[in-house]
Design a protein that fits this description.
The protein has 196 residues and is an alpha+beta fold. 31% of the residues lie in helices and 26% in strands. The strands form three sheets. The chain has a four-stranded antiparallel β-sheet with strand order 2-3-4-9, with no helix packed on it. Strands 5-6-7-8 form a four-stranded antiparallel β-sheet, with no helix packed on it. Strands 1-11-10 form a three-stranded antiparallel β-sheet, with no helix packed on it. Bound molecules: FE2/S2 (inorganic) cluster.
């Protein structure tokens, strides 16, 4: 075979190879339609899955913005005569915004002191230093904090130790022969404005 005919044969083989490659890259209209359909299905499923995952998060966020807890509520503590004059007693009450299934976790305590016939004063059980529960020592007429030795007088003011200020007080009233305590919702970190 001459060199010219060898070259012609090589060129023909190359052309033939390129034709084959072009044939493999081409897609029929049905294949293009199927590809588009699968792409749409894939996008739809991705969107649906994203919505399913995101909905509870969005709902929770909007709920916290739209559903405001009650500003506060009066809780009945008992009859006036259930409390001794000059006595201080630990009382329990439901928090504001308590849920039906909250159980004991939706309850708080306070120290209730009866000064005169219809004069009551309620103190938070939490120490103003680091929040430990204080206890009433009737013999000494003092509140004691077991954590760091904080001491408060019967009126809640600081007697000794590290507490920087008096025990927090809650509003109390007497209605129809009963004692009521006003309780506010417990602030949640990040959701409440600073109360100072
Ligand atoms: S927490 Fe009460 S004295 Fe420290």
């Amino acid at each position: 075979m001459s060199s010219t005919s060898k070259e012609n044969t090589a060129v023909e083989q190359q052309d033939h190879g390129q034709e084959n490659q072009g044939g493999q890259g081409k897609q029929s209209p049905e294949e293009i339609k199927r590809g588009r359909f699968l792409t749409l299905v894939s996008l739809g499923l991705t969107g649906f899955a994203t919505t399913v995952v995101a909905l509870p998060v969005i709902g929770s966020f909007l709920g916290s913005l739209l559903v405001q807890p009650p500003a506060g509520v009066w809780r009945r503590l008992g009859k006036v005569d259930d409390f001794k004059r000059g006595g201080t007693l630990l009382v329990s009450y439901k928090n504001a915004g308590a849920l039906p299934w909250g159980g004991v976790s939706d309850k708080s305590g306070a120290w209730l002191r009866r000064n005169t016939d219809d004069s009551f004063i309620a103190f938070s059980v939490n120490c103003q230093h680091l929040g430990c529960p204080v206890r009433w020592v009737s013999q000494a007429e003092l509140f004691e904090c077991p954590c760091h030795g904080g001491i408060y007088y019967a009126d809640g003011s600081v007697a000794a130790g590290p507490p920087p200020k008096s025990l927090q007080k809650y509003p109390v009233r007497v209605r129809s022969g009963h004692v009521d305590l006003f309780t506010s919702p417990i602030p949640l970190p990040g959701l409440s404005k600073s109360s100072g």
